[in-house]
Amino acid sequence: MTEISESILPVNDIRAINDLIQKESGFIDLIHLEIEKTIVGQKHMIERLMVALLANGHILLEGVPGLAKTLSIKSLASTINAKFSRIQFTPDLLPADIVGTVIFNQKENQFSVKKGPVFANFILADEINRAPAKVQSALLEAMQEKQVTIGAETYKLEEPFLVMATMNPIEQEGTYPLPEAQVDRFMLKVVITYPLKEEERLIMRQNVSQIAKQLSAVCDTKEILKARDLVRQVYMDEKIEQYILDIVFATRRPEDYKLAKLKPLISYGASPRASINLALASKAYAFLKRRGYVIPEDVRAICYDVMRHRIGLSYEAEAENITTEQIIADILNVVEVP
């Protein structure tokens, strides 16, 4: 089904898609119930992980250590019965440590390929900004192309393929910040905060008790791939498409939207990837809410995570401690909601 035909779907077809999604999205609740056995709170992070998975995107997490980033993606992989791989990024890491290399087999007297940890369904790229640019680009190429070249051979990566990269915001020594063009390849950038006091009490109790909770697989990768196809069929009205375009274009030409005060604060606006990813993420978010159509609240809910890493701040904005979140909030307050 093409995007053009979706925008003029008859009411009966929208109802059919809505009924189909309500029927086929039952595994979402099962995944959440399983993950809650090991993860306390962090619903925003888990929800965004599911959005990235269903929309075939990747996610960048920013937060201090100890906020269950590793445990979250590991738990998600366990509930889906998928292969999980963790890569700890360090300054001495090489591209071959991620994608693999060609080694000489003395017994068989020939070269053979040793595949790297990138050959998995769920990849945790821990502290991605600790590795040099060559290593970062090796992973980002795999993310973009969904394939890896080792020697003269090209190997397709398994589907679903989700990369969750983490960044530590408080340690800047010995780090290599991701260039804007590479950060843009992540569908979502999620900022994680500390848990509430009551949540932390439960976390503390859970970790000092001797009972280790085992997670069960409640669905498989085939169900996820089927759900991805359904996400693409979620109905998006032309007015919602226009709303998404207005939000993105307001970051490029704020004066056209009565936001001239933002012009000196933005060095560059969001790229076309922002429009694509905002549309896809909104559809995935609607799917999570068991709906077959996108409403403006879906766009607004996911907007910050799609846009916050795609707007460049000027020196003036940094001097005044203005964040991209404040700019997005101003845009959402002014751009007309359909």
Characteristics:
338 residues, alpha/beta, Rossmann fold, Helicase, Ruva Protein, domain 3, 2 domains, 5-stranded parallel beta sheet, two-stranded antiparallel ribbon, 11 strands, globular, disordered N terminus
Strand/helix succession: HHHHEHEHEEEHEEEHEHHHEHHEHH
**Secondary-structure content class:** alpha/beta
Beta-strand portion reads: 5-15%
Largest sheet: 5 strands, parallel
CATH topology of the largest domain: Rossmann fold
> Gap between N and C termini, in Å?
24 Å
**CATH second-level architecture of the largest domain:** 3-Layer(aba) Sandwich
- CATH C-level label of the largest domain: Alpha Beta
The low-confidence parts are 1-8
Our count of helices gives 15
Q: What's the gyration radius in Å?
A: 21 Å
Give helix % range: 40-55%
Arrangement of strands in the largest sheet: 2-5-8-1-9
Number of E-state strands: 11
Characterize the overall form.
Answer: globular
CATH superfamily of the largest domain: P-loop containing nucleotide triphosphate hydrolases
Mean pLDDT: 85
Describe the structure.
- It is a single chain.
- The chain is α/β, with parallel strands linked by helices.
- It has 2 domains: 27-219, P-loop containing nucleotide triphosphate hydrolases (Rossmann fold); 234-338, Helicase, Ruva Protein, domain 3 (Orthogonal Bundle), CATH 1.10.8.80.
- The chain contains 15 helices and 11 strands.
- The strands form 4 sheets. The chain has a 5-stranded parallel β-sheet with strand order 2-5-8-1-9.
- Helix 10 packs across helix 12 (272-288), helix 11 crosses helix 12 (272-288) and helix 12 crosses helix 13.
- It is globular, with a radius of gyration of 21 Å.
- The protein starts with a helix and ends with a helix.
